[in-house]
């Protein structure tokens, strides 16, 4: 095993800003592990919109802040108390600070770390280092905050995005009628091919009017809204009586404060779930991670990595993602 260096290349910011210019590709200390931790040398790290929330200051972050939420790689060191993993294990995992050559992770519980096959290929590293955040988000969200049922009408915003594509497939597979929104007809075609029953161009169509048309005036049983401020009112008005509003993102900005009494006329439930709350025990982690892998390996869930960037080029990936110019998943290749 190659000696572990003292410094590494990372992507970080030292001050918050919506401007991408605060992002830095620079040398940074390799983390030292405790007796309970493992050190992973990363191969690939998935790009997720949540990084923009930390960079802009919408979500709190201690600086200097190394970005990233998921990755794949090889265990290169372990603490004395770690029994689940050994040096040389190939893994994919969820953790902060993965836009880096090395990341330290708690290794005592096995939660949010997935062992890969000993003969895992580069393609395996790429796929599994990129799918966990969005795949597990989609899988838990169609079961936990709202259990999608056959015959349900589901409104899904940004259906051609990373989470959107997976939610479309999973909801359609459960027998739901997915009403997909996207900003272009080309993106809507992607959603249609993945199982969406109805399409709404969010750039030109009246979302609420279209939803009422598709549901004979009743509205949808649930809405999945990762856009936030720009779509909140349309999502709210599109719900049927006893509908469920799942708000899980802020790509257009944070949802403004609103009066809780607005929920009463139609007995609406509103939730703000996060993936970690559904995978916080060994049992739930094993359940959902195994189910996700099975769906992918059996060809029941299509996951598309549309572009791979070098770690140093993350600012370009972020610009393309935040300008809504992308579909599917973006991934970073970590220098070795």
TrEMBL record:
Enoyl reductase (ER) domain segment(s): 18-332
Keywords: NADP, Oxidoreductase
MF terms (GO), sorted A to Z: mRNA 3'-UTR AU-rich region binding; NADPH binding; quinone reductase (NADPH) activity
Family matches, as Pfam families: ADH_N, ADH_zinc_N
UniProt-listed CDD domains: QOR2
Cellular component, GO, one term: cytosol
Domain of life: Eukaryota
InterPro entries, sorted: ADH-like_C (IPR013149), ADH-like_N (IPR013154), ER (IPR020843), GroES-like_sf (IPR011032), NAD(P)-bd_dom_sf (IPR036291), QOR-like (IPR047618)
Protein name: Probable quinone oxidoreductase
Annotated gene: ZTA1
């Amino acid at each position: 095993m190659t000696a572990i260096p003292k410094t590494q290349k990372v992507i970080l910011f030292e001050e918050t800003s919506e401007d991408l210019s605060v992002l830095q590709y620079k040398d940074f200390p390799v983390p030292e592990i405790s007796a309970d931790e493992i050190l992973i040398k990363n191969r690939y790290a998935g790009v997720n919109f949540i990084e923009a929330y930390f960079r802009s200051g919408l979500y709190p972050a201690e600086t200097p802040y190394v970005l990233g939420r998921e990755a794949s790689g090889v265990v290169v060191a372990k603490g004395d108390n770690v029994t689940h993993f050994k040096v040389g294990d190939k893994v994919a995992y969820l953790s902060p600070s993965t836009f880096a050559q090395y990341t330290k992770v708690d290794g005592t519980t096995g939660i949010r770390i997935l062992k890969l096959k000993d003969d895992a290929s580069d393609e395996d590293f790429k796929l599994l280092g990129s799918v966990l955040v969005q795949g597990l988000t989609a899988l838990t969200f169609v079961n936990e905050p709202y259990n999608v049922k056959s015959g349900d009408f589901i409104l899904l915003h940004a259906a051609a995005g990373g989470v959107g594509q997976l939610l479309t497939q999973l909801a359609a597979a459960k027998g739901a009628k997915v009403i997909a929104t996207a900003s272009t007809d080309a993106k809507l075609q992607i959603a249609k091919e993945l199982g969406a029953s109805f399409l709404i161009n969010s750039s030109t169509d009246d979302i609420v009017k279209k939803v009422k048309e598709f549901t004979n005036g009743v509205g949808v049983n649930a809405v999945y809204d990762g856009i936030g401020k720009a779509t909140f009112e349309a999502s709210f008005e599109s719900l049927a009586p006893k509908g469920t509003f799942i708000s899980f993102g802020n790509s257009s900005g944070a949802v403004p404060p609103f009066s809780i009494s607005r929920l009463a006329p139609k007995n609406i439930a509103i939730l703000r779930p996060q993936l970690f709350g559904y995978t916080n025990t060994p049992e739930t982690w094993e359940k959902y991670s195994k189910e996700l892998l099975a769906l992918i390996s059996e060809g029941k869930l299509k996951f598309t990595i549309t572009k791979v960037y070098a770690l140093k080029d993350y600012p370009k990936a972020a610009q393309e993602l935040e300008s809504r110019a992308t579909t599917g998943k973006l991934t970073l290749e970590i220098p070795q």
